[in-house]
């Protein structure tokens, strides 16, 4: 069954926990929280927008192409300004934001370089563009080995939805092509300290079920997914399970022309 906007909101909240440490580090390193105006592009239901709007930043603006997400963001992040629009042609004047950032966006857009150039355009000289999280499923690790099929399914499902599952590796190239300065690129690390909470496992399997709808031979795949689910849950229970999706970040400064 397709996930509702509310289900996606919960998923976005979970994803934001995975990137919290990197975000804190990059916000501090890039000086994001000292800014007057910050734009969150592809803000979804406003998970990061809310966090930014509750910080020392004077005004936080969120932009998204889906009105159902903007509606949720309006109640979730009530002190932020929200705008409905396309990241390829943003409804903002040039050089108006100190920082322009995005989180799990570029893999979903038609032309990531055009979006990055647009983010640069709306950022003031001396400001910076920050892309916080772009996965690359080509480097995903699943253990036990039988679970590698999950990556095959997810990669196909993403491609069938028009997303680029290999966006992460391209981030460095497009930052250079966009003419950003003092570019820093990295990959978010991972730790497996505690048992994974049940709600996180349920969320993972909700995403897998939703992905299966975007794959051919669905009935055959659905049948084997039941077996894979058992192997997955057993591996979490014994503590063996590893899942790692390399997730890239990058930031660069906007210099006066
Ligand atoms: C994976 S979600 C991430 C949402 C949010 N950044 C977060 O991390 O919670 C990707 C978001 O990008 C938005 N999006 C996709 N293409 C877009 C475009 N061309 N312009 C603006 N937003 C877009 C989607 O509507 C969705 O909200």
Q: Specify the helix fraction band.
A: 40-55%
The assembly state of the depicted protein chains is single chain
Number of domains: 1
What is the helix/strand order?
Answer: HHEHEHEEHEEHHEHHEE
Kindly report the CATH topology.
Answer: Rossmann fold
Order of adjacent strands in the largest pleated sheet: 3-2-1-4-5-9-7
DSSP strand count: 9
Question: What CATH architecture label applies?
Answer: 3-Layer(aba) Sandwich
Amino-to-carboxy terminus distance: 50 Å
Radius of gyration, whole Å: 19 Å
CATH class: Alpha Beta
Q: In terms of structural class, how would the helical and strand content be classed?
A: alpha/beta
Question: Which regions have little confidence, pLDDT < 50, spanning 5+ residues?
Answer: none
Shape descriptor reads: globular
Strand content: 15-25%
What does this structure look like?
The chain is α/β, with parallel strands linked by helices and 257 residues long. The protein has one domain (5-253): Rossmann fold (3-Layer(aba) Sandwich), CATH 3.40.50.150. 42% of the residues lie in helices and 21% in strands. It has nine helices and nine strands. It has helices at 5-18, 20-30, 47-53, 67-76, 112-121, 148-160, 171-177, 198-212, 218-238, and strands at residues 37-41, 59-64, 81-84, 97-102, 123-135, 141-143, 181-188, 242-244, 247-253. It has a seven-stranded mixed sheet, with helices on both faces. Strands 6-8 form a two-stranded antiparallel sheet. Strand 4 (97-102), helix 5 (112-121) and strand 5 (123-135) form a beta-alpha-beta unit. Helix 8 runs antiparallel to helix 9 (218-238). The mean pLDDT is 94. S-adenosylmethionine (SAM) is lined by residues 12, 15-16, 42-44, 47-48, 64-66, 69, 86-88, 103-105, 108-109. S-adenosylmethionine binds at residues 12, 15-16, 42-44, 47-48, 64-66, 69, 86-88, 103-105, 108-109.
């Amino acid at each position: 069954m397709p996930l509702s906007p509310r289900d996606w909101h919960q998923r976005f909240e979970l994803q934001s926990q995975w990137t919290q440490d990197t975000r804190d580090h990059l916000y501090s390193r890039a000086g994001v929280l000292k800014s007057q105006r910050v734009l969150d592009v592809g803000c979804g239901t406003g998970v990061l927008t809310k966090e930014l709007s509750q910080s020392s930043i004077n005004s936080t603006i969120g932009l998204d192409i889906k009105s159902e997400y903007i509606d949720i963001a309006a109640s979730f992040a009530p002190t932020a300004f929200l705008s409905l629009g396309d990241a390829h042609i943003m409804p903002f004047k040039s050089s108006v934001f100190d920082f322009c950032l995005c989180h799990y966006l570029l893999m979903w857009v038609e032309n990531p370089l055009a979006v990055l150039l647009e983010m640069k355009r709306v950022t003031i000289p001396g400001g910076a563009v920050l892309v916080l999280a772009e996965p690359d499923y080509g480097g995903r690790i699943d253990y036990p080995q039988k679970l590698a099929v999950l990556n095959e399914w997810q990669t196909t499902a993403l491609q069938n939805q028009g997303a680029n599952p290999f966006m992460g590796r391209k981030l460095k190239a497009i930052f250079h092509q966009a003419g950003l300065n003092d570019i820093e690129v990295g990959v978010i690390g991972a730790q497996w300290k505690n048992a994974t909470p049940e709600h996180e496992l349920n969320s993972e399997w909700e995403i897998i079920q939703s992905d299966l709808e975007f794959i051919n031979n669905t009935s055959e795949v659905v049948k084997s997914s039941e077996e894979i689910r058992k192997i997955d849950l057993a591996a979490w229970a014994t503590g063996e399970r590893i899942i790692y999706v390399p997730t890239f970040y990058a930031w660069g400064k906007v210099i006066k022309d």
